[in-house]
Amino acid sequence: MRLFFLSLIVFFQFSFALATPVRVMIDPGHGGEDHGAQYQEIKEKTVALGVALELKKLLSADKNFVPLMTREGDDFVSLSARPEKAINSKADLFVSIHANSSPALEAKGTEFYFENQVASNEETELLANRENNSKNVKGNSVPDQNTDLENIMTDLNHHEHMILSQQLCQLLLEAFQQQIKIKTRSIRQAPFHVLLAPMPSALIELGFISNPGEARWLNESVTQYKMAKAIYSGLRRFKEKLDKTHKKNVN
Ligand SMILES: [Zn+2]
User: Fold this and answer.
1) Residue 132 near residue 140 (C-beta atoms within 8 A)
2) Distance 190 CA to ligand 1 centre (A)
3) What spacing in Å lies between the alpha carbon of 146 and ligand 1's midpoint?
4) pLDDT digits (tens, 9 = 90+) for 57-112
5) Does 122 have pLDDT greater than 80?
6) In a domain, 12, yes or no
7) Is 148 exposed, middle or buried (0-12, 13-18, 19+ CB in 10 A)?
8) What distance in angstroms lies between residue 225's CA and the mean position of ligand 1's atoms?
9) Is 227 helix (H, G, I), strand (E, B) or coil?
10) Domain extent at residue 125
11) Is the Cβ–Cβ distance between 123 and 218 less than 8 Å?
């Protein structure tokens, strides 16, 4: 609750502005030999890429955005390369797209994550471990806790980064609630490596591949388009909100 009030206050005080056009790094999770979660032939890497490519199309058609991709095909990209690509291509926002899995087959719904070095509970810690485990594929390693990336963030920047990322998650969640008839679960914090990108960043778990009904639904191209559209709406709202706040602060 304290974080909630703090975030409200801080959101209106920050002068953080987004450049126009906004450069959005879209990060479809997994790829190549790293399939992510899987139910029969339905693979997380394919669902994530499907949504990512639809999102790319939507952003390309809007002059306020420039879409960038960490991968555009079924390629393996290490976890450390993903935020690096965002930095190198001067991305303003980072959106990582995944699908969830749980031993409880009835688990379903979308979840939104922003970074924290400490998982908010045991379940999110398990999820973070699972997503972070793709570092072991092909021996690519993710930097330890004290990376250069972390060291260049001052406390304030880090705090701002967290609050902005939380706001981004909130607007994405609202867009999903409005546009998609799915039980949207929550916004959570977890220590995902990809969320260390130093720009406002969100990780979306679209739904549960481990739930057979939801896996089939996620695999449909019409679902993937709807989800991409919801993400696009959330990004637009985030830009509008920041533009308004910035205008107020500089006037
Ligand atoms: Zn994943």
Assistant:
1) no
2) 13
3) 23
4) 999 999 999 999 999 999 999 999 999 999 999 999 999 999 999 999 999 999 99
5) no
6) no
7) exposed
8) 19
9) helix
10) 20-131+154-185+192-250
11) no
- Is 11 inside any structural domain? no
Cβ atoms < 10 Å from Cβ of 153 = 14
Other C-beta atoms within 10 Å of 101: how many?
A: 20
pLDDT at 66: 98
Q: What's the structural domain count of the chain?
A: 1
Note whether residue 47 is domain-resident.
Answer: yes
CATH number (domain holding residue 96) = 3.40.630.40
CA–centroid distance, 147 to ligand 1, in Å, is 22
Strands 110-115 and 201-208: antiparallel
How far, in Å, from the CA of 36 to the mean position of ligand 1? Answer: 5
CB atoms within 10 A of CB 16: 17
Counting every residue written for the chain, the total comes to 251
